[in-house]
Write a structure and sequence with these properties.
seven-stranded parallel β-sheet, single chain, alpha/beta, 478 residues
């Protein structure tokens, strides 16, 4: 077994590694002259907006317009700000691995024996979500109490591939919506499988009847609405205007939570003061969605930085009222085909080189973290060196692929990132609201934090602690 060292990893990959992890969707924000911009209706009246400026989103809930045209034609410079875009960056090392398709074919990893897909879900097994591996002794599991029925969550992301058998019937196709300006619907349409992976972590139903079975989400009875903000055909990526409109609409549609596994690169505010305008926009948005009863869950980012530093601004995680989630994960989970019939001993004992609650080497940390959750970890030397099972330290969930004939096929894959940690918490919100439908946003967040467990690294990496579903569901029943 190759020894893991957090300090060694950071030295190897540098401080920019986080923007290259697939579960990030975080790269430099960019602006384009005479293109997309935002209009603050608290600074200028709607009637003063020139007629040749095209309004893309009317976000009147927070007195904002997303527009296209010549920003200087508006006249009042204080009323406009660039509509900063978040681009997906696929350069550099990527922590992801594809597994089998739904029919069990195309497995790209090495293993001994034919394990079921659910056996790769250390993130669910360690939380006792359900009896995924038929371990002896039985006992009470989270899903014996609730599976999130009667709740609704939004996945604001690259779209959700709802033809996946583990997501069939999960996505509300009438309420789902495309917030980009391309001509397609809310499904991925070439935008990538990031949102599909996130959706599976939240609500996969383990319905695949193929030889390897399926995967299970934290709240398989919740309803997902897919709000797509990334485009597979446009160069614009995910703009602030599209994402803010999508998040406000999610609250209007009665969502209990919105999962936003997206963020902006951590810029020096003194060099990029325009980000303060974006921060204010998210502050308005957060106040609005909280008043509507929606918990705003956001990934903390994968840049291995301390968000407490004054000159750095990590958006939108640092905005007050946004629930920021850092990532943890094991090292050594099932490497070299090793396993144990006693899952509890395997996942919580000394057989792992690093525990499942270990801060992931890439995760951001600091004051903006509310809790940590399973996002996956990685020993890059082991992954690159072909160690059997090294990918199992990542988070396993639903994806889609393109086969040799160009057809889209459902499958499964591993990804690591705070993008994978956030939906663990979003699913937890659904569990709480299924038990306490009238709980306020503050009450839900307080429950999650009050029941969190202590973990290595303390408050710096975990905020109030590590997500503990067993404690959470028990307390929510009281």
């Amino acid at each position: 077994m190759i020894k893991n060292s957090r300090r060694k990893f950071l030295k190897l990959v540098g401080t920019t590694f986080g923007v290259s992890i697939v579960g990030t969707n975080t790269t430099a924000g960019k602006t384009k002259k005479d293109s997309r911009f935002l209009i603050d209706l608290r600074e200028i009246s709607r009637s003063e907006v020139p007629s040749d400026v095209k309004i893309i989103h009317d976000i009147s809930q927070i007195d904002l317009l997303a527009a296209r045209g010549d920003a200087s034609s508006v006249g009042d410079a204080a009323a406009t700000t660039p509509d900063i875009t978040v681009y997906q960056d696929t350069s550099g090392p990527i922590v992801e691995r594809n597994g089998p398709t739904v029919d069990g074919k195309g497995r790209s990893h090495n293993h001994d024996g034919p394990p079921k897909n659910s056996e790769y879900q250390w993130d669910k097994r360690v939380q006792d979500v359900d009896d995924l591996t038929d371990k002896p002794g039985g006992g009470k599991f989270i899903h014996d109490t609730t599976k999130g029925a009667g709740t609704r969550v939004a996945v604001v992301d690259t779209g959700v591939y709802d033809a996946h058998p583990d997501l069939t019937g999960v996505v509300n196709d009438e309420l789902s919506e495309n917030f980009t300006t391309d001509q397609y619907d809310w499904r991925p349409n070439g935008a990538g499988d990031h949102g599909t992976h996130v959706a599976g972590i939240i609500a996969a139903t383990n319905s695949n009847s193929g030889p390897d079975g399926g995967v299970l989400g934290t709240a398989p009875k919740t309803e997902i609405i897919s709000h797509r903000v990334f485009s597979g055909v446009e160069e614009e990526g995910a703009t602030t205007g599209d994402t803010v409109a999508a998040l406000a609409a999610a609250a209007d549609k009665g969502c209990d939570a919105a999962n936003f596994s997206v963020g902006y690169i951590n810029y020096n505010v003194e060099e990029h003061p325009e980000l303060l305008d974006i921060k204010e926009i998210y502050h308005r948005l957060t106040k609005y969605v909280r008043a509507k009863g929606m918990v705003f869950v956001n990934s903390a980012g994968n840049d291995s930085i301390d968000m407490s530093k004054e000159k750095l601004l990590s958006l939108p995680t640092e905005v007050e009222g946004i629930f920021g989630v850092s990532a943890t994960g094991p090292i050594g989970c099932g490497w070299d085909g090793k396993h144990s019939d006693n899952e509890e001993k395997w996942l919580t004992g000394n057989r792992l080189e690093e525990p499942t609650t270990e801060p992931a080497f890439y995760t951001n940390y600091g004051n903006a973290v509310d809790v940590s959750a399973a996002g996956g970890n990685a020993d890059l030397e082991a992954l690159d060196g072909g160690v059997k099972g090294a990918e199992r330290d990542l988070v396993y969930s639903t994806i889609y692929e393109t086969d040799e004939s160009g057809n889209t096929v459902a499958g499964y894959g591993w990804k690591a990132g705070t993008s994978m940690a956030a939906p663990q918490v979003t699913g937890a919100v659904a569990l709480v609201r299924s038990l306490r439908p009238d709980a306020s946003v503050e009450e839900v967040e307080t429950l999650i934090q009050a029941t969190a467990s202590d973990a290595p690294g303390g408050k710096t990496y975990h905020g109030a602690g590590h997500l503990n579903l067993k404690r959470l569901v028990k307390r929510a029943q009281m």
